[in-house]
Amino acid sequence: MANDLLKGKKGIIFGALNDQSIAWKTALQAHAQGAEIVLTNAPVAMRMGEIHDLAAQIGGAPVIPADATSVEDLTALFEGAMEHFGGKVDFVLHSIGMSPNVRKGKHYTDINYSWLQTTLDVSAISLHKTLAVAKNLDAINEWGSVVALTYIAAQRIFPDYGDMADAKSLLESITRSFGYHYGVAQKVRVNTVSQSPTVTTAGSGVKGFNEFVSYSESMSPLGNADALACADYCVTLFSDLTRYVTMQNLFHDGGFSNTGVSQEVISKFAPEA
């Protein structure tokens, strides 16, 4: 990758829990490309994770706790970031997702609807709240970039992904709808990245996750994209090289999304000679 793609740019990264996180690796790669960063996560996630270790690795970045479902917390986050940077931000990474139903093994046809509300609020509506707060505070520079992480279960059925699939569908809809309005108003672009199944703390909590990974690897012409490759892709979306890309769901999955069936998969069903 070219050097200094993000030189002079400032951003907020949500969701870095530990060094498995896509958000963690994105923070490292963005910093390596010259960006200044504010890190944030929910207070409970910060107690579980290692975010302060990451902050030290990227030049002592500030860590501002924020529950992304709370407008008040998000307001304090953006105000704190602008105070730290001495101005607006240029990019935001929304790397947030959680389903109590999936965590507790509830089948999709028998979910707890109160937990569903939590899934939707944390995993999707939090993006709307983040964008609304940023827009109301005029916190993102023109031609700024917001990227949210999603998964192809928004379009296709993966039985054990449960109500997270509904949340990702809503997340992608918010990206299109808010992306239109934010683009018209202030030329801020909003996109989702639909990543290969990736070994992270959150992803590993999905039943059958290892099988997901193996199947996707055998279906993808280039193989699964790992977390570091996803981080590099996010950096390009934060950069000025993609300033006319908005309202898109961008597949970063080694070709999985456009492969009907691979020869490797076919061979598993071929009769033995």
How is this structure best described in words?
- With 273 residues, the protein is of the alpha/beta class.
- It has helices at 22-32, 43-48, 51-57, 71-85, 100-103, 113-136, 164-186, 209-219, 227-238, 263-269, and strands spanning 10-14, 36-40, 89-94, 140-150, 189-195, 249-252.
- Strands 2-1-3-4-5-6 form a six-stranded parallel beta sheet, with helices on both faces.
- Helix 1 (22-32) packs across helix 9 and helix 6 (113-136) packs parallel to helix 7.
Total count of domains: 1
User: So what's the CATH class?
Assistant: Alpha Beta
Q: What's the arrangement of strands in the largest beta sheet?
A: 2-1-3-4-5-6
Tell me what portion of residues adopts beta-strand conformation. 5-15%
Specify Rg, calculated over alpha carbons.
18 Å
What is the CATH homology-level superfamily? NAD(P)-binding Rossmann-like Domain
Alpha-carbon distance between the termini? 46 Å
The overall pLDDT, averaged over residues, is 94
Tally of alpha and pi helices = 10
Q: Please count the beta strands (DSSP E, at least 2 residues each).
A: 6
Question: Unreliable segments (pLDDT under 50, ≥5 consecutive)?
Answer: none
Helix fraction? Answer: 40-55%
